[in-house]
Design brief:
The complex is a heterodimer of chains A (121) and B (182). With 121 residues, chain A is of the alpha/beta class. Chain A has one domain: 3-Layer(aba) Sandwich (Rossmann fold). Chain A is built from five helices and five strands, in the order E-H-E-H-E-H-E-H-E-H. Chain A has a five-stranded parallel beta sheet with strand order 2-1-3-4-5, with helices on both faces. In chain A, helix 1 (10-22) links the parallel strand 1 and strand 2. By secondary structure, chain B is an alpha+beta fold. Chain B has one domain (5-181): Chemotaxis protein chec (3-Layer(aba) Sandwich), CATH 3.40.1550. Helices cover 40% and strands 27% of the residues of chain B. Chain B has helices at 5-33, 74-85, 94-114, 171-181, and strands at residues 38-39, 43-44, 48-49, 54-61, 64-72, 121-122, 126-129, 134-135, 144-150, 153-163. In chain B, helix 1 packs across helix 4 and helix 2 (74-85) packs across helix 3. The radius of gyration of chain B is 16 Å and the shape is globular. Chain B starts with a helix and ends with a helix. The chains are: A alpha/beta (121), B alpha+beta (182). The interface between A and B is medium-sized, with 20 and 23 residues.
């Protein structure tokens, strides 16, 4: 199981990686913005799950999702963001995210959403 | 004597805004780290200084523009970082600074999502380290401070905002009456 975590906040990447580690998922790649994430996918191949922030410099999470889906990528994507307006959630779903987590969140809730999308041993 | 309904309405709006931020801060600390706070009465400041070791300055634009500063005591920042990352930093390192930056992002971002569209648009926070730095908001702004405490330490929300709505006056002057009556 390979997971890509995309967030410009180093500490948020660590928090999400910690939640993944608690599920036994330790093959985790990190990227600080959408463009770096695309470069990582291009260089190392598809992932089993992408967890991305929305607000990031260079390329935001929504643009990343649109780019991945536009290239035919079917990997499950979870958006983790402070944006809680209904319009934003709808916009993300229309772009192709599979689930949406609003910050702040409890790690249990994030773990539950991950387990729902990918088979965890 | 007839109450001034317009002023009363503005006072309610200002009160709700400040309380929304306080509630947001409580939610972030509780959900992410299991830390709960008591609140203290708001203070109306003539000079605003960073009273905490770490301060996330969050610029905002929209109906309310200016800055919101999320200040956190050293011990509290270390505890929060320990709770979210699972290991206690020895000192104020990049993890702690990143954590306080993310705190500002989550507290203000959460309120942004609850308010009507265009009320507040936040920019990326910057963290100032060290106490005593005096913050200049300009002569037209009188900052307001809300403080929250737990056994480990205190955190505060410092508001230097202007209400730029067409019918609005300074948000802080709206809050003035509220604070005087608190």
């Amino acid at each position: 199981m390979r997971v890509l975590v995309v967030d410009d906040s180093g500490v948020m990447r660590k928090i999400i990686s910690r939640a993944l580690g608690e599920l036994g998922i330790n093959d985790v790649a990190e990227a600080a913005d959408g463009q770096i994430a695309l470069d990582v996918v291009k260089a190392s191949g598809p992932f089993d799950l992408v967890i991305t922030d929305w607000n990031m410099p260079v390329m935001n999470g929504l643009e990343l999702v649109q780019s991945l889906r536009g290239s035919g990528c079917a990997t499950p994507i979870i958006m983790v963001t402070t944006k809680s307006e209904k319009e934003s959630v709808l916009q993300a779903i229309q772009a192709g995210v599979n689930d949406y987590v609003i910050k702040p969140f409890e790690r249990d809730m994030l773990r539950m959403k991950i387990e729902r999308l990918v088979p965890v041993a | 004597m007839k109450p001034n309904l317009s002023r009363l309405r503005k006072k309610v709006v200002a009160t709700n805004l400040f309380l929304e931020f306080a509630a947001s801060a409580c939610r972030v600390f509780d959900m992410m780290a299991g830390i709960t706070f008591e609140s203290h009465p708001a203070k109306y400041l003539s000079v605003a200084a960073c009273g905490h070791e770490l301060n996330a300055i969050v610029p905002v634009q929209g109906r309310w523009s200016g800055s919101i500063i999320v200040g956190v005591d050293r011990e509290l920042s270390l505890l929060f970082t320990e709770q979210v990352l699972g290991c206690r930093p020895d000192t104020i390192d990049d993890d702690v600074i990143d954590t306080v930056k993310e705190l500002g992002n989550m507290i203000v971002g959460q309120v942004e999502g609850h308010l009507p569209s265009g009320s507040i648009r936040m920019s990326l926070p910057t963290v100032v380290i060290g106490t005593g730095t005096v913050l200049g908001f300009g002569s037209e702004i009188k900052p307001v401070l809300l403080e929250l405490s737990c056994p480990v330490g205190k955190m505060s929300l410092l508001f230097g905002l202007i209400d730029s709505s067409p019918d609005g006056s300074l948000l802080v002057s709206q809050a003035d009456a509220l604070l005087a009556n608190a």
